[in-house]
Amino acid sequence: MDPKMKRRPKSTDYTSDYKAGQDNVQILGMDVNNPVFTTSALVIIGFIAFALLFPAAAKEWLNGAKGWSINSFDWLFMIGGNIFVLFCLALILLPVGKVRLGGSEARPEFTTLSWFSMLFAAGMGIGLMFWSVAEPVAYFTDWWGTPLNVEARTDEAASAAMGATMFHWGLHPWAIYGVVALALAFFSFNKGLPLTIRSAFYPLIGERCWGPIGHVIDIIAVIATIFGLATSLGLGATQAAGGLNFLFGVENTISTQIGIIIVVTSIAVLSVMRGLDGGVKVLSNINMTLAAVLVLFVAIFGSLIGFFGHLFSTTVSYVEYIIPLSNWIGRDDNKFYEGWTVFYWAWWVSWSPFVGMFIARVSKGRTVREFMIAVLLVPTLVSIIWMSAFGGQAIDQVQGGVGALAGGLGDVSSAMFQMLENLPLSTLTSIVAIILVLVFFITSSDSGSLVIDSITAGGKVETPVPQRIFWASMVGLIAGVLLFGGGSEALSSLQAGAVTTGLPFTVILLLMCVSIYKGLRSELY
């Protein structure tokens, strides 16, 4: 045998005799890793009880934690985001890109279209629905700071608004997802380790992954995921309520938003009981079809020529602003920089265990290069198309003095519907938009619940139904509690939860990059 083909010593082969769920215990019909499940559940239930009993104190604590995280560690979020982008781009170009997830004989389990639909629906569909109109208008009109302090409502502001919006929804978030997803897929499918966050650290800490250090990593991942998901679900509930108010006069109150969360969480519970193929896959394909129809409608009826103009200008603006906005040294636009960019980076990081593990589960059989191109570049292109259609049309309406948006951004949750009102068939398209928000809401909730379930089950993929129901219910409860505790400033409370839990996980992701490279290098032998 060629010496180069021999297996390397086990110390650098990164395989283990540990099996997924081998330390699990059975509790109330559930199959769980006791330290991870119990600690995570107690922390979350304790937070829910505290926020319900003392909403003012909970709100003050969350906002204080958010302020401390941003003021003290804004540099860490920014450095981390930049490193993740460069790392993922490097993996596309380096020889390790030819490594196939699952081994050289592995083949994809899902068609490319279904695979991409699930990536996008889980990754940021609900956020794009909420912010694709509101965010460009906010930056253009100085609703809460402008990028690099450009003068509001100028041609420069329009360019900066689209460039900054793409900065927040382009390469950086998907690089964050890609790091976690690749780590989990590689160490699970190629090295046979359990599909859980701690497995990604095997090259760094070895068998200690299965002890207390590993428990802490997984607990942080569960809590970060819960709050990241709750933030997105809270935003989805406020937008759906805003749409119902805009169309049918239903009062947009916290009670209405919590009612929406209850209904959607109930549907998500039914979906999560059906599993990946029977629930998430079907809903994701429906999502992408409806989203494609809506974006085509806005592009065509909003002015097809204008859409292509926005497509070009948004791409140019993204390239122009990506480096200045990636810098954190000497910035004097603190209101924008801390209120938007740092929050987004923390939000994406807190979402990364959920989106990363979900992407990993559906990506077996892809090469690292194919995986990174799909996860990093393709969604960025789709986001450019989406933002060009919705954000470009919204800024045109503001500049042209057309409709409610001309006066600036009022109710953020109604911005999408205010833009659609000035296009043909506004009632129909607004109903489609509400349906899209709700279905994205459901797919985020049930896919996130499946992921949390896997982490707390010691990496087991197939788990008892009561377990799935428990975590789907917890996600809905946290979202409802954050809205309830936030009152009139619910959006701020949602953001505070995401930022606070995203901070410790940023450090985990940076270490994960080192572990991934060590593992991929070993696979080349």
Automatic annotation (TrEMBL):
It is found in: Cell membrane. It is a multi-pass membrane protein. InterPro entries: BCCT_CS, BCCT_transptr. Pfam families: BCCT (PF02028). The chain crosses the membrane at residues 36-55, 75-94, 115-134, 171-189, 210-234, 254-276, 288-312, 342-359, 371-389, 423-442, 469-488, 494-517. It comes from the Bacteria. Keywords: Cell membrane, Membrane, Transmembrane, Transmembrane helix, Transport. The keyword Flavoprotein does not apply. The keyword Membrane applies. Its main location: membrane. Belongs to the BCCT transporter (TC 2.A.15) family. PANTHER family: HIGH-AFFINITY CHOLINE TRANSPORT PROTEIN (PTHR30047:SF7), HIGH-AFFINITY CHOLINE TRANSPORT PROTEIN-RELATED (PTHR30047). This is BCCT family transporter. It comes from Marinomonas ostreistagni.
